[in-house]
Design brief:
The protein is an alpha/beta fold. An 8-stranded mixed beta sheet has the order 13-12-11-8-7-6-21-22, with no helix packed on it. A 7-stranded mixed beta sheet has the order 14-15-16-17-18-19-20. The protein has a 5-stranded mixed barrel with strand order 1-2-3-5-4. The radius of gyration is 28 Å and the shape is globular.
Length: 738
């Protein structure tokens, strides 16, 4: 039985590693082979093939429900019903629309929409909206998050920006929406948003600083409803019945164990319903149901069986769940506890078991955090030692009881005030822990080093006295394996995918330079959210120079966050920026790093900020790259007039391919063999312009575009070609038309 279930789980999990999905013909063939294997009693092969077929079929249905390519980037009038809890932001509202329809074409069943400066939107309302729709996509950088996979796992078929709209059928709002408003209105020591997250699973109202504190201390799971909360509520009911039975207070005519399991499951389902029944809640309820069934009937079969059953049940219910990091973290945490606490000789006192649970989970989750690219919290074991019982045994019961008793005047508010005060104390302590030990974003590891870390974690978690346990600690040192160095005389160039902006990392053997820092607008800062994490995952712990071409927000917006987040030796720029101590860019300044020459050019007489962009020419073993910022036609002419040898090999497209740049004379004189375009998908500026693209093609340039290929990598001096991150095929990724 276990072998067949394990094979079924493997077949379901294979989905996340497929570069493409099998065709219908291949799926039918695999299905027939799987059924035949079962009839011939080759259970593992049959279960594996059937699991793979089920997962692929489910994924194909999700892909088929995406927005049609011909509607990508178009603005349509559509109608649909608001579902879930719309979330207010400082700049508007975000919400999901279900079963939308339009006379202009067939739409996916679920849309995720943003409405900047939009009115209040309530769950259950029917709206008519003018929406600019996009196929699911997101920024794609080396070792970074994959938003396409996340949207597919949630079965969101399109995203969009609302331009205008009118409500067709106003409703009083869903009961969850009304309850959220009621919770936000109570006095809870300023922690109303945290109570909403804890009770309703809606963390949209949490301040950015609070999220940073939770991430830095590894305690996000405490405020985002997860298996821990579902298990706690169920455990409280189960423990209450078990305690009453032990003390002889439970009715003798009612068997206590079935009653305890039934009440625990009922409480878990009620809490999941209160939290909106999202994918993590569904996963937690399925896992709990399997565990309770095991406790009721199959405890003699061992502790690993419910974990395997829960894994299979979750994946059969939603095969795409394996595309979400939370899936792997949830099962890895449970598997680690079973691995460390079951089948041990002797016992631990409760306080010993609790303290050891924290550090074993920290080590057990390390390989998963590395594989998913998530930060590693160095303070998590200590922070969770306090935070988990604080939230589980004090805050959550008070919050749920206070919510339940809100109709009783004064009682519910008092309990929520107390819960909010306890949360305020907790956040104060967590902030101290975060400042003491911030989260660590480790460099991405090669596969062999990651496997060594996995084996090391398994050995470290073995009981004391087991041979080779000490070797595990040494194997964990593979976390600091040196990154592959760039050969002398060459420079590795990464044009990051930052949307409508620019950020280019250049690394020689011993030096690193960042040209531009990505955009920033409102609360979104690409320097903090994209550039800094990518630098760390690429193993860059120090920048010898940061060069900001000019002061426009799409190039300089992330500069301050980067300067605060990573050590910097020098900051250069074509225009002054506050708070950076920026040195001016001068024409003719040159330097050499590891056999690679860097040269600056700046047109101080430029009439616009774009024309005053600081230009960087990089030369490596006869191969040349020009980083041109936002140069326009006049500045291009000035650069040509001041340059004796304008020929280059690679060009960063000036001004993102704007019609005011990349003139015929400039392209003819520089004669690059390829151009690198950095821009946002379906951007409002029309970049790159069709005339510019035609000019590039007419001159035979290879066109590489971050909106199509993700982040772009070039080894200058190696005479190679440009590679896009999107070239690493996954079945859910597609090269967008832009």
């Amino acid at each position: 039985m276990r072998t067949g279930m394990f094979a079924l789980a493997l077949g379901l999990l294979c989905l996340g590693f497929l570069p493409v999905l099998p065709s219908v013909g291949w799926l039918l063939l695999l299905f027939v082979a799987g059924v035949a294997s079962l009839f011939t009693r080759c259970w593992p092969v049959g279960c594996f093939l059937l699991g793979l077929c089920w997962a692929c079929g489910s994924a194909q249905r999700a892909l088929d429900d995406r927005l049609a390519p011909e509607l990508d980037g178009r603005t349509l009038w559509l109608e649909g019903k608001v579902v879930g809890l719309p979330s207010r932001t400082p700049h508007g509202v975000r919400f999901e629309l279900e079963q939308p329809h339009s006379r202009r074409g067939e739409l996916p069943r679920r849309l995720q929409l943003s409405w900047f400066n939009g009115p209040a939107v309530r769950a259950g309302e029917q709206w008519r909206l003018a929406v600019t729709l996009q196929r699911p996509a997101g920024l794609l950088n080396p070792h970074g998050p994959d938003r396409e996979a996340q949207l597919l796992a949630r079965r969101v078929g399109a995203t969009g920006t609302v331009k205008a709209g009118q409500v067709l059928s106003a409703v009083a709002g869903s009961w969850r929406d009304e309850l959220r408003q009621r919770l936000l209105a109570v006095e809870a020591n300023g922690r109303q948003a945290a109570l909403v997250a804890l009770v309703l699973g809606d963390g949209a109202g949490l301040a950015r600083e609070d999220w940073q504190t939770l991430q830095a201390t590894g305690t996000v799971h405490l405020l985002v409803i997860s298996g821990q909360h579902i298990g706690l509520v169920a455990g409280l009911l189960y423990g209450l019945v078990a305690g009453l039975a032990r003390w002889g207070l439970w009715p003798a005519r009612l068997p206590w164990l079935p009653s305890a399991c039934g009440l625990a499951m009922t409480a878990a389902l009620a809490y999941g319903w209160l939290a909106g029944g999202g994918v993590p809640v569904q996963r937690a309820c399925l896992m709990l149901a399997v565990v309770l069934l095991w406790r009721l009937r199959f405890r003699h079969l061992g502790a690993t069986l419910p974990l395997l059953l829960a894994l299979v049940a979750v994946l059969l219910f939603e095969p795409l769940a394996a595309l979400l990091p939370g899936f792997w973290l949830s099962f890895a945490a449970v598997a680690t506890l079973i691995y460390c606490f079951s089948a041990r000789l002797g016992g631990w006192r409760p306080w010993q078991a609790w303290t050891r649970a924290q550090w074993v989970i920290a080590i057990g989750l390390l390989p998963v955090l590395l594989a998913t690219g998530l930060p590693v919290s160095l303070s998590a074991p200590l922070a969770n030692l306090l935070a988990v019982p604080w939230v589980s045994l004090a805050v959550l019961p008070l919050a749920l009881l206070g919510t339940l008793l809100l109709p009783v005047v004064g009682v519910g508010e008092a309990l929520l005030w107390l819960a909010g005060g306890l949360l305020e104390v907790l956040f104060s302590v967590l902030a101290l822990a975060a400042s003491w030990r911030p989260a660590w974003v480790p460099p991405a590891l090669p596969l062999w080093a990651w496997l060594v870390v996995c084996l090391g974690a398994l050995l470290v978690l073995l009981p004391r006295g087991v041979p080779l346990r000490g070797l595990g600690g040494l194997m964990l040192l593979a976390l600091w394996v040196p990154r592959e160095s760039v050969p002398l005389g060459q420079v590795e160039v990464w044009q990051l995918d930052v949307g409508q902006g620019l950020a280019v990392l250049l690394r020689t053997r011993h030096h690193s330079l960042l040209y531009d820092a990505g955009p920033a607008k409102g609360e979104y800062d690409a320097g903090e959210r994209v550039v800094l994490p990518t630098l760390r995952k690429l193993g860059v712990s120090h920048l010898d120079a940061m060069l900001i071409s000019h002061a426009h927000a799409d190039h300089a917006g992330g500069a301050l966050a980067i300067a605060q987040g990573i050590p910097l030796t020098r900051v250069l720029g074509g225009e002054g920026l506050e708070g950076l101590g920026l040195q001016p860019c001068f024409t003719g300044e040159q330097w050499e790093w590891d056999g690679v020459r860097f040269s600056l050019w700046h047109w101080a007489e430029g009439q616009s900020s774009n024309d005053r962009s600081c230009v960087l020419l990089v030369e490596a073993q006869g191969e040349r790259l020009l980083l041109a910022g936002d140069l326009e036609a006049a500045a291009e002419r000035a650069w040509l007039a001041s340059t004796e040898t304008p020929r280059i090999d690679w060009l960063q497209s000036p001004h993102h391919g704007s019609r005011s740049s990349s003139t015929e004379a400039f392209i003819r004189a520089t004669a690059p063999r390829g151009v690198l375009i950095s821009r946002g998908r379906n951007n409002g500026f029309g970049h790159p312009h069709a005339q510019v693209l035609e000019r590039y093609r007419r001159h035979g340039l290879a066109i590489h575009d971050t909106a199509v290929e993700g982040a772009l990598r070039l080894v200058l001096g190696g005479q190679g070609d440009v590679e896009g991150v999107r070239a690493q095929r996954r079945f859910w990724r597609e090269a967008g038309s832009g």
